[in-house]
Design goal:
Shape: globular
Number of strands: 15
Largest sheet: 5 strands, antiparallel
Number of helices: 5
Oligomer: single chain
Distance between the termini: 34 Å
Strand content: 15-25%
Strand order of the largest sheet: 8-7-9-14-15
Amino acid sequence: MIVIKTSEEIELMRQSALIVSKTLGMLATELKPGVTTLELDKMAEAFIRDHGAIPGFLGLYDCPSTLLTSVNEQIVHGLPTNRPIQEGDIVSVDCGAIMNGFYGDHAYTFEIGEVAPEVKKLLQITKESLYVGIREFRIGNRVEDVGSAIQRYTEAEGYGVVRELVGHGLGRKMHEGPEMPNYGKRGKGKKFQEGMTVAIEPMINLGTKNIKQLKDGWTIVTRDGKPSAHFEHDVALVNGKPELLSTFAYIYQALGITSNEEDEFRAIPLVL
């Protein structure tokens, strides 16, 4: 079911999203060779609770962790482990938090040291496709306009677009309507409405679109064993246009990266 939010509720959701953004920013400085994703998970839980929020994933659908950490060929839903991260890995860190009764939920794929050029390009194109999709989240468009834009952008580079896993509406529940696929046909799907809030999250594979699930019942991997990238933002439809609730700015601040990629999606400048 699609739940339309008031302007006041959207501001509460922004606070929830920013807790996740700050958590990812904190983790950005910790993601280095030798650290384990289980250690990152403990850091994230402590950080979220210290900032007055509750981990959004922990216990949801019996999830055993605060983070979902997907390394290399893992696409999403990777459970934290004691395996040390290695130079050249990529790690998708997906995080959720609850504050004021609303969820924040977004993700970023990190490079660990120097990664292979073809993997670096995969991350670049996947992140660019996120913003390509967000631009289509506006009054007058429909759900599959977003997915169609992401699909065209990434398939033009020869990448595989995951079909079985999609973005979603977000609010007092982690998963609200509508589902937001990363593929589709223009003009198809539900019409966007003022006050909608969604999580848009392209999951793009270096090889084919085919996937499989590991025996842990959570981790989804590419069937061909090639790397996958995942980026996610929380977005509200405000005054007919997409407005970011989440930000990668804390990550960029931690890593010394300069970027203006989010500027067009903000009514007022973000103050860190």
